[in-house]
């Protein structure tokens, strides 16, 4: 039982893992798959390797006390194991992935094909620059289009993700303030609805975070910002469209007020995918904004390494852009690697090399294949799909803010009052319906939040199926069938677990059972 008193093991009639009426424990094509270490067959291997040559140890007398513990497996066993694991994984190639504020976009296969071209996938960051002119040209082209789309004069390509981009932007702001001799500007204004990385980044850079409360309409007012301004304000970090899925209508007035007070405007560009091709951030007074390539330009999301978060910079911050960056020279393109060779005053370096080449290839392929009209349509379709979801669900679910949304539709948990069903319970029941749950409990300014983002590529038939499932579940909750939700998910390989306990006391090492 978990801390809420709910079962954490499968029921015989409803889940794999115990007696489900089959000898194997399998449910058709859903196999009950053990850990790879439990498949160990000592002495079995899929390849023949020559014995390692004798070498002189350079470990100061330290010796291995035992083998490294890798399991012995044949090639078919390995292939089947990982194939079965893949069948348990939910991905955008399976069906709709409605995470809000994350944008789980379809990754066009054309982009994947181009990223695998040998001239891009096989190069090495330590090659002489004369041998990677094509790669440098691609980076330069992508930078050009990011600047064109945003209206900004400069872009730092090296940041590895959105949060890394935030760090880049604030470090550029800090460098600009130091160059002005205004080291006393130590306060950063952050709306209460912001992504958690905003205050974390500000604190990491040594700033003090001052929260701006949200208005009743889910937006930030220029009056609230002006009330916080002072000679110690370094910048504001404002997400637009914001995390409630709403456009900030006073964004230009807010930027002007911050600038008049001597501060900078950092725009969290996590939701730029809702306005690309329609709004230029430069026209809103933005000084720095990161662009999540996975959200706006369809590069793969997650996986522990393929992130990319270029940061566009205004004229005021461009001189402080980090190293390295691409420039045109007499002998072609080259990377400026050292501050002594830079025209401005770069604050330093964000990472060892220039960026994530595979993501650059995919993003440029997406931009060039869509063109200006296609990018505008993509953002428009994302907004259309989100408003369709909101319009079809707002009579059975509760909406915290009236009016149209941008690329994501936000609901709260008032429609579940007195049902005994929570947002988490509702999300678990969605899994049984074949849908990955939406973002839960974020933004924090909305109680029990359901943040749903359908993206631009979902067809109406899929949206209708998703909407039908949500309406069905809302009806069951209101009809008093709390038991249905408390028992969910029923059809997964494992039932509901003690997620808090697993996070606080993870078991990170498999130990063979005692003989």
UniProtKB/TrEMBL annotation:
InterPro entries: Aminotrans_V_dom, GDC-P_C, GDC_P, PyrdxlP-dep_Trfase, PyrdxlP-dep_Trfase_major, PyrdxlP-dep_Trfase_small. GO terms for biological process: glycine decarboxylation via glycine cleavage system. Residues 378-476 form the Glycine dehydrogenase C-terminal domain. It catalyses: N(6)-[(R)-lipoyl]-L-lysyl-[glycine-cleavage complex H protein] + glycine + H(+) = N(6)-[(R)-S(8)-aminomethyldihydrolipoyl]-L-lysyl-[glycine-cleavage complex H protein] + CO2. Residues 1-25 are annotated as: Disordered. Keywords: Oxidoreductase, Pyridoxal phosphate. GO terms for molecular function: glycine binding; glycine dehydrogenase (decarboxylating) activity; pyridoxal phosphate binding. The glycine cleavage system catalyzes the degradation of glycine. The P protein binds the alpha-amino group of glycine through its pyridoxal phosphate cofactor; CO(2) is released and the remaining methylamine moiety is then transferred to the lipoamide cofactor of the H protein. This is glycine dehydrogenase (aminomethyl-transferring). It comes from Nitrospirillum iridis.
């Amino acid at each position: 039982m978990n801390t809420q008193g709910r079962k954490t093991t499968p029921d015989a009639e409803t889940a794999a893992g115990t007696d489900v009426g089959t000898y194997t424990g399998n449910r058709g094509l859903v196999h009950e798959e053990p850990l790879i270490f439990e498949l160990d067959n000592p002495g079995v291997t899929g390849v023949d390797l020559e014995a390692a040559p004798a070498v002189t140890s350079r470990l100061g007398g330290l010796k291995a006390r035992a083998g490294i513990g890798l399991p012995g497996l044949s090639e078919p066993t390995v292939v089947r194991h990982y194939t079965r694991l893949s069948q348990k994984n939910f991905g955008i190639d399976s069906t709709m992935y409605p995470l809000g504020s994350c944008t789980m976009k379809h990754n066009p296969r054309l982009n994947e094909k181009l990223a695998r071209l040998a001239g891009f996938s096989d190069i090495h960051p330590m090659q002489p620059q004369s041998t990677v002119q094509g790669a440098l040209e691609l980076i330069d082209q992508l930078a050009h289009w990011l600047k064109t789309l945003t209206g900004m004069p400069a872009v730092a390509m090296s940041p590895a993700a959105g949060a890394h981009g935030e760090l880049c932007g604030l470090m550029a702001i800090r460098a600009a303030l130091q160059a002005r001799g205004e080291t006393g500007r130590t306060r950063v204004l952050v709306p209460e609805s912001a992504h958690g990385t905003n205050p974390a980044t500000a604190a990491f850079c040594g700033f003090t975070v001052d929260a701006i409360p949200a208005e009743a309409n889910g937006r930030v007012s220029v009056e609230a910002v002006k009330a916080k301004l002072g000679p110690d304000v370094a910048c504001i970090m404002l997400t637009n469209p914001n995390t409630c899925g709403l456009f900030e209508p006073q964004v230009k007035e807010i930027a002007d007020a911050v600038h008049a007070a001597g501060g900078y405007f950092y725009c969290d560009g996590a939701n730029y995918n809702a306005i690309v091709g329609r709004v230029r951030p430069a026209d809103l007074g933005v000084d720095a904004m990161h662009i999540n390539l996975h959200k706006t330009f369809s590069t793969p999301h997650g996986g522990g390494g393929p992130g990319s978060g270029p940061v566009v910079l205004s004229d005021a911050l461009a001189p402080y852009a980090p190293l390295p960056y691409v420039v045109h020279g007499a002998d072609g393109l080259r990377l400026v690697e050292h501050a002594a060779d830079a025209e401005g005053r770069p604050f330093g370096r964000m990472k060892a090399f220039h960026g994530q080449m595979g993501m650059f290839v995919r993003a440029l392929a997406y931009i060039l294949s869509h063109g200006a009209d296609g990018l505008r349509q993509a953002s428009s379709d994302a907004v259309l799909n989100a408003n369709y979801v909101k319009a079809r669900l707002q009579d059975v679910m509760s909406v915290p803010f009236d009016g149209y949304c941008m690329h994501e539709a936000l609901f709260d948990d008032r429609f579940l009052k007195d049902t005994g069903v929570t947002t988490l319970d509702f999300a678990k029941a969605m899994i049984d319906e074949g849908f990955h749950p939406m973002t839960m409990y974020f933004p924090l300014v909305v109680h029990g939040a359901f943040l749903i983002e359908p993206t631009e590529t979902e067809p109406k038939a899929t949206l209708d199926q998703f909407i039908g499932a949500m309406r069905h579940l809302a009806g069951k909750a209101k009809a008093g069938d709390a038991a249905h939700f408390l028992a969910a998910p029923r059809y997964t390989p494992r039932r509901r677990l003690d997620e808090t306990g697993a996070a606080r006391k993870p078991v990170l090492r498999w130990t063979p059972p005692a003989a």
